Amino acid sequence: MKFIHFADAHLDSPFRGLSFLPSKEFNHIYQAADQSLTKIVDLALSEKVDLVLVAGDTFDSSQPSPRAQLFFAEQIKRLTDAKIQVVMIFGNHDHMKQEDLLVSPSPYFKLLGSNEIVEKATFTTANGYNYDVVGFSYLNNHITEDKIPEFPKKGQNYTFGLMHAQEKTTAASQNVYAPFTVKELQDLNYDYFALGHIHARNNLSTASWIVYPGNIQGRHINELGAKGCYLGEIDENSGKTTISFKETGPILWQAAKLELEAEINKADLQAKIIVVLAAKQKTYFSLTISGAQYLTAEERDLVQDADFWQTISQSLQFDSQLVDVRFVVNTSLKLNANDQQAFQTAKDELFTEKEFSKLVSDWQKKDPEAAKLAADPAFIAAVKNLTEVKLMSKLKGIKDETETN
Amino acid sequence: MRLKQIKIVNFGQFSNKTFDLPSDKINVFFGANEAGKSTTVAFIKQIMFGFHLRSNFSPFFEDYTPLAHVSPMGGSLVFATDDGEYELERLYAKGDKTKKGILTVKKDGQVVPENLFFDQIQNIGGAFYADSFIFNQEMLGQVSSLSQTDLLERIYYLGAADSSKLLELRDSFAKEAGKLFKKTGKKPEVNRLLKEMADKRDELTQTKNEFNDYEQLWQEFEQESTALKKQMQDLAVLQKQAQELQNLQKEMGNYQTLLDLQKQVKDVAFDSQNYQKAQDLMAQGRNLQKTIQKLEDQLQDLGESEQTDFAAEKKLIQQKPQLLQWQAEYRNCLQKVDQLEQEQKQLLALTPELQSLYNLTSEQLKQLQADYQALPSADTESQQAAATDNKIWYIIGGVLAVLGVIFLATFGTIGVIALITGLIFLAAGYVKNSNQTKQNAAILEKRKLIAQERRAFQTKYGLDSDTLNLNSVLTNLNQYQLKENAAQVNNEQINTINQDVAQLASNVQNALKQPVENDFSAVLVGLDELDNQVSQKQEMAQRRANLTTTVKQDQQDLKESGLQLKAIFAQANVKNMAEYDQLYQDFLAQTKLKTQIAALKASLGDDLERLKTQTNAAELTDQLSGLARRISNKTAEINDLQSQVAQLQVQLDNLADSTAVFKAKQDLANTETDFAQASEEYLANLLAAKWISRSLDLASNERFPKMLKAAKEYLTLLTGGRYVEIELAKKLTVVRSDGKKREVKYLSRGTAEQLYFALKLAFVEQIKDEINLPILIDDSFVNFDDQRIGYIDQLLQKISENNQVLIFTAQHSLVDKLGIKPLTFTKGTQDA
């Protein structure tokens, strides 16, 4: 028996951090998730899989656009027409009612566990192999209770778990996506737990499989690397499962790093950047320049200018794009010991969570997006990094001035 | 650092005025208004930091030009410090390059580099001193504009190296941050993006309704489609009704025709079989009549028979074989004549002697024979003759034998005869031949003798005895005469035949009644002709007989058919065929009528029943026009519905193809990205500023927090506990003991001044380790009531523990309160 497991298609979801891109590029972006899903369906058809598991967040919201709905319905129809069983659940983004789903009814399409009630469904492959799929769908955007106790014991059949959920963390505020522990899942001893929600591909367990396939298309700089689905094959005699990742996302997000060890002129800098941004497919690059202190203020402004990114992108293969540049300062400045100490102590004090939350308090009250950013470690890190870069570059200026004086 | 002596050479209204200060703690200067108190304060500040001769703005007492008239201006100050006594003398004389005056610093009477003094006060400038150590009405009034920055700068100045640059940097960061975001504001980028984000979110929410729209549209679409279908069905029903009515209308005509036709229907008794029979009989009769007529004509043509008995002619005709027999015989006879003549000629040719002998009589021939017998024979000739004769025998014998064999096969008897004859000849030949040989020898011997005799013989008879073979000649002669006789018989036969033929010819001529030549062919022709004539006449007779019989039969048939016809006519109740034909035509017409009626009925079909009841054409027209109106109304409704459905379809299609949600999301995401970037920028600036501040705090041993703490204590002291907290951010705020916050601008003047004192004194207190200079208070308690003066007294007492305090006042009450003997400004020593 063969199956495909994918999750977090997030159809119609936007890409982030690309406001500067030309509009034609947005057509690629716009089609990227669709293309990825189409490829997954192509794969299912060409591999003649028996089952496709859709582990939630197919749509970006509980009110998906008709276009996205119709597109998805069309793709599912391709599968059901080929008598491929599709089992789908809703996630925290597409917590919709089953009747709002435009997929045409088919014996080969099953929306599992509506109304957040854990449901077990039994199917038989064309070859007569029986298997169970157990799971539930979101009806609201948050599920705070642990759903695992509601999952039935594994029966005779090969058993799939299908769940859109996040591992339990210490921060209670984050335990709102059907929090579970790996041990709980392992104790259930299902053959394959198909998870969704976390956009990074990750196998929590390989003994009995517990798998996050990641999303099908990276959408911003924090969703790096190849995106697609898992193709699984079950030895019907032994019940052993082997899985392989299949890349389907047409646009790859990738981090690149350029290390500077000395001051550099603009032309060389540009050439070096192009070399670092070698693409094997259409790629959106996030470039980190370490040793940024070697750049002049003018160069820093240049390199952070979106127009410059576009210029660079024109020299990249596969229509790739440079979409993000970050600086890292890799040496500290030599202030006098007292001042140095003061700055370090101040940094230690201010760069704490508590102090940061004081810093952002006015700003974050303004908008939920600001509040979200204020709680986002990546954003916090970025702010701190930028602060450091800014300050260090300025202090370097003072130092230089002082020295020349 | 304590000020011991103020020595004015020329400054303002003062010349040569010296004050010796009695106390290291509080000194009081008393003088009326305009007595020179502020001038003295300015003097102290300017001696230390330079004359202020510029005309630009200064917060206090320096905005006048006291230097015009006297020279040199200036004076000196004497400070006592832990490591000795400093005298600062500053003088300005006309023509000096620097308008700040020339400073001379002496330590314990010795001129020293000025930084020896200034290092001890951290090289601060005049502004720093004025801001930090001097209090007057004007400055107290500025309490509301007191900011952290001002205070901090002074403090940090004492901490980190390049603190002013760091402060500048911090300010530029703070300024940048301020440009990017303000707590209340619309223009800064972050604020702008916040607004934009909210807008975009609204847009997205609206766009997201697409799906609801879609579902709603779909429902509408379904409803409208159903309605449309229903209307179409209704229309179809109406159209069918109309069609039926139209058909009915059309069929009204047909129905009328039907009725007319039905009126014409009548019963016609007609048996088509009989009619056919009658027609056949009629035709038969006509044919019979025609046949009879024809036969009679033929009989007429044949005429009456002349002769019935043809016996004589037949007898003649029967002689035809006889005639042919005669003809054959005749031909044989003629042939025989020729043959005999030919044989005679041959005999003559073979035996020319026959000519000579022919006319001899039998006695003469006997003589001859005797004569010849007497003659010796000539061998050669006889030999030759014999030889010749022998050969002939053989030949004839052979030929006959062969013929005999041939004939034997064909003719039997004749063959046998011929064969025997042949064999005889052959035998005879053989015999002759053997005789010949014996004879020859004898002949040869006698040859010579004989020759003579022979010649004589020849003469007598004219016959050459040498050549003559008399026997042969005689034989031949015999032969010849036989032929002669045969010819005679033959000729007689010919004559007989000729006579018979002539007789027959004559008979034939009589029978034919036409001349017939007396020869075989003519007679034969005649006979044939006669035979022909007889046959023809006999045939005619036969035909006539036949015709007559036929006519009779036909006439009988005619009669019978006439009877049958009459019977049929009677049956059909008609007199004759013409009537019968008319009856038939009537029958046909009725049949056609019935067919038409049937066809009409068939075409009217089910409508027939309706037509029987529906007879009013006008009513029908009304109904039709009514229906037409309904159809047109229905069509209009359908058109409306169709256009609605089409519109809905387009809307649905648009929504199905719409990327609006994605676009709205992407727009929002882009704005959010911009917002995140701007915010990052803002927060980084903010954090950088804070970082610098904090670093400076740390570098300056956290003087500021400590100062703030002291200021709070002082304020609490000065306000008798009414105010307990100072918040020093961009704006200065105080917190009352009941927890209520007050901005400075809402405080009473007195309280505001108390706050100012609290802050400034706390500051001075804070920096005392680094900078310890006298505090100059110039007429600053005018707004203080007694109680407040009491409080400030307490505070000044405390402060003066560390810093020397110089109080300049015109208030007696204050002097009394302080209980210190004041220094006074006496007239006369002033500006002369």
Poorly predicted regions of chain B are 379-383, 828-832
Average pLDDT metric of chain B: 81
Largest interface: A-B, 56 and 63 residues
Describe the global form of chain A: globular
Kindly report the name of the CATH homologous superfamily of the largest domain in chain A: Metallo-dependent phosphatases
CATH first level of the largest domain in chain A: which class? Alpha Beta
Rg of chain A, nearest Å = 25 Å
Sheet with most strands of chain A = 6 strands, mixed
Oligomer designation: heterodimer
Strands in their spatial order, largest beta sheet of chain B? 2-1-4-5-6-7
Structure explained in plain terms:
Chain A is α/β, with parallel strands linked by helices. Chain A has 2 domains: 2-247, Purple Acid Phosphatase, chain A, domain 2 (4-Layer Sandwich); 252-404, no CATH class. In chain A, 33% of the residues lie in helices and 22% in strands. Chain A has helices at 23-46, 66-81, 182-188, 266-276, 297-303, 306-314, 337-350, 353-359, 361-364, 368-374, 377-404; strands spanning 2-6, 51-55, 85-89, 109-111, 119-124, 130-135, 158-164, 192-196, 202-205, 209-212, 228-234, 241-247, 252-259, 283-290, 321-328. Chain B is an alpha/beta fold and 832 residues long. In chain B, the strands form 3 sheets. Chain B has a 6-stranded antiparallel beta sheet with strand order 2-1-4-5-6-7. Residues 379-383 and 828-832 of chain B have low confidence and may be disordered. The interface between A and B is large, with 56 and 63 residues.
